[in-house]
Amino acid sequence: MDSHAVTKTDYKSYTGAFTLLHLTHLQPVQVSHLSFTSTHGALPEGPHGSGKSPTAIVMLNMGGPSTVSETHDFLKNLFLDNDLIPLPFQSIIAPLIARRRTPKIEQQYTDIGGGSPILRYTQLQGERMAAILDELHPSTAPHKSYVAFRYAKPLTDATAQQLKADGVTRAVAFTQYPQYSCSTTGSSLNELYRKGKTGAFGDGVEWSVIDRWGTHPGFIEAVAQNIERALAKFPESTRADAVLLFSAHSLPMSVVNRGDPYVLEVSATVAAVMERLKHTNPYRLVWQSQVGPSAWMGMQTGEALKGLARLGRKQVVLVPIAFTSDHIETLYELDLEYAREAREHGMDVHRAESLNESPVFIRALADMASAHLKDITTGKSGPTSIQMALRCPGCTNATCGQQKTWFARGGR
Ligand SMILES: C=CC1=C(C)c2cc3[nH]c(cc4nc(cc5[nH]c(cc1n2)c(C)c5CCC(=O)O)C(CCC(=O)O)=C4C)c(C)c3C=C
Ligand code: FES
Ligand SMILES: [Fe+2]
């Protein structure tokens, strides 16, 4: 998001005044509308009624400001998150950075139509998934989807109240980040754990976790179909020359270097998509949306586009690969900044659509949840994946360890 904050200092410089100066010059973003309860069908009765309480499928994501005026609170929550951005005196500095950054990010959300569509898409995906899930796995029906965002409404507290009111006794924490990073899914699980251990969701909720699914065949198929649709926009004579430029949100090198699995898992997604496409086109994986002055995973998407133009590779399909709905990075950074700039360099650029309302993708979500519930209820697997139990070798965050233990015991 921030094109001029690329000094090659270590991410540790986030912890200095130097960083603060840079961060306050970062550009703001913005997003939009939506309500935030999510149900499909009528509310099943809770513990005090005669009906069966629902199996909760809690869709975890970062969220975004639904309206431009929510931008400041979104940024404040984001900069307060120690799992994402460790800052000294965080509770004092985070609001200052958020305040300084708000106007720029507000303008970006205005430019993409007045806010982030992430809540609308997450609700839609969740509701349609739950309806399919009732058919795929009737023994745990009714299923009801809930949304728990890390930085925007509905925050975990509000979602917890909903589960409590519905008398939920079985809940699945379903990350909506396909690939696992401790700064994304890890942060959401830490927050869920902090609330869960104080009883915010009610007593006796049995938790399990779907923590990553970057190579699920249904997800891969949905992405591949969107790439094929984008490729079809090129004249047949140049189609085979088009470069598939997969673009994922970058990570600070300090996070990569403590052993975070995200870079590997995004790479695995890309490899699976290319297998499915039978390698009809050349491709690269590049990284976008660096924030602040520290070193981040590269090559940067914007630089890659310029490099391809210089090399005469002027047909490009941009493929967002680490987020399942449109957001500021696709609608602003990819569409308004990079694609426009690339066209000015004489390039022919098309973006693969985000998964948004893709029925193939929604079916994949239902398949994942169904397989998970089947494995849990038949005792074939425990509440968490084998991979989730392993902390990053460089992890010094005690909450990560406590969170993993808590979920491995089913939230007890
Ligand atoms: C898989 C996706 C994402 C990863 C990994 C990720 C890591 C990460 N992000 C920041 C800092 C910021 N991210 C911001 C916005 C933002 N981040 C993602 C996704 C990932 N972030 C998205 C989709 C968005 C946009 C939300 C939307 O449009 O709805 C922002 C705020 C915007 C800004 O101020 O520029 C910041 C800040 C860090 C530090 C980090 C890894 C440690
Ligand atoms: S930072 Fe990865 S497990 Fe703690
Ligand atoms: Fe981010």
Automatic annotation (TrEMBL):
Reactions catalysed, as given in the entry: heme b + 2 H(+) = protoporphyrin IX + Fe(2+)
Compartments where found: Mitochondrion inner membrane
CDD domains per UniProt: Ferrochelatase_C, Ferrochelatase_N
Stored InterPro entries: Ferrochelatase, Ferrochelatase_AS, Ferrochelatase_C, Ferrochelatase_N
Source taxon at top rank: Eukaryota
Top EC category: lyase
Topology of this chain in the membrane: Peripheral membrane protein
Protein name per its UniProtKB record: Ferrochelatase
Source species taxonomy: Eukaryota, Fungi, Dikarya, Basidiomycota, Agaricomycotina
